[in-house]
Amino acid sequence: GLEYRDQTDDQVTVDAAEAIKKYGVGVKCATITPDEARVEEFKLKKSKSTTPRYIFCPVLLTPYLSVAISQWNHQKHPYRATDRLIPGPGTLELVYTPAGGEPERIQVYDFKGPGIAQTQYNLDESIRGFAHASFKLASLKSLPMYMSTKNTILKKYDGRFKDIFQEIYDKEYKADFEAKGIWYEHRLIDDMVAQMIKSEGGYVIAMKNYDGDVQSDIVAQGFGSLGLMTSTLTTPAGDAFESEAAHGTVTRHYREHQKGRETSTNPIASIFAWTRGLVRRGQLDETPEVVNFAEQLERACVEVVDIEGIMTKDLALACGKKDRESWVTTKEYLAAVERRLQKNLGEETKL
């Protein structure tokens, strides 16, 4: 777990990523975020930066819930940043030393007292891969696409994203989009968030990591619960695929479970993480029975909520039901899914 990642300086995660690259498919479980409290609790070293990745977060729909936002997709792009506390007065500089050249020093700020600072960077190659992955997703789903930045403030950094996306769209995707009756447009992130809330959805948004982290939770809650959102990671070429639940480790529920108390944790996103992986594995191996099983399991998860009205606490509360009789425990929900799955598979066998 977390301690082993620390012992290996995160090499275990690199090895896992290489295995996914080799075999084409992987499923990731939720992991603990090593914040300052965790670092102290487990005596951890500073976590290394993760490798670039492209993340797509679809929300699972069930008409049983009162949905605030309809069919909204987002993509998150990674950034790497280094931050530090500034202990006292001094000058903060950004130094760039070109290969074989003289250092270029840019004075950032003259601190008069303690403060904080952060630097971040990205690569044109990474941004281009991000753009291609985004446009391919929009084309595949025949959905219009937006790219959201704050280029009015971060003129160089966010402006680079905007320019590269526009260049690639004009050269490689514009004709395809127009033929499908869809479009691409750049919007400021604050304008996009307002549009997201008031619109009926049905589009793809490409966002940088922090924006996507925040907005994905808004989207999930708009659909009823974080337990309804999955996350899939893919390379621009589509030759490596990883799926996971978009939520974390649900620590508070686990602590209750350790005390022997009942919990009503929504397992749907975790189930879909595995079924999405199975679907992709079945597609690669040309084993339709594997794909069918995974899709039938997904169907059972939705039908238990939508048709039978059996749901965990988070979904019941999203429906405005606050009495204890309105929800079941995690084990009871899983048992209902198993019954529904066996029923669906049995009906399929009879056909």
UniProtKB/TrEMBL annotation:
Give this protein's Gene Ontology molecular function annotations: isocitrate dehydrogenase (NADP+) activity; magnesium ion binding; NAD binding
Q: Binding residues for NADP(+), per the UniProt record?
A: 31-33, 38, 198, 248-253, 266
Taxonomically, the superkingdom here is Eukaryota
Q: Which UniProt keywords apply?
A: Magnesium, Manganese, Metal-binding, NADP, Oxidoreductase, Tricarboxylic acid cycle
Q: Cytoplasm as a keyword?
A: no
Pfam family name, one: Iso_dh
- The molecule here is called isocitrate dehydrogenase (NADP(+))
What GO biological process term is on the record, naming one? Answer: NADP+ metabolic process
**Which residues are listed for Mn(2+) binding in this entry?**
190, 213
Q: Which InterPro entries match?
A: IsoCit/isopropylmalate_DH_CS, Isocitrate_DH_NADP, IsoPropMal-DH-like_dom
- Catalytic activity reported: D-threo-isocitrate + NADP(+) = 2-oxoglutarate + CO2 + NADPH
EC annotation from Swiss-Prot or TrEMBL: 1.1.1.42
- Site: Critical for catalysis. Where? 79, 150
Q: What is the lineage of its organism?
A: Eukaryota, Fungi, Dikarya, Ascomycota, Pezizomycotina
- Cofactor(s) it depends on: Mn(2+); Mg(2+)
Cofactor binding summary note: Binds 1 Mg(2+) or Mn(2+) ion per subunit.
Q: In what residue span(s) does the Isopropylmalate dehydrogenase-like domain sit?
A: 1-337
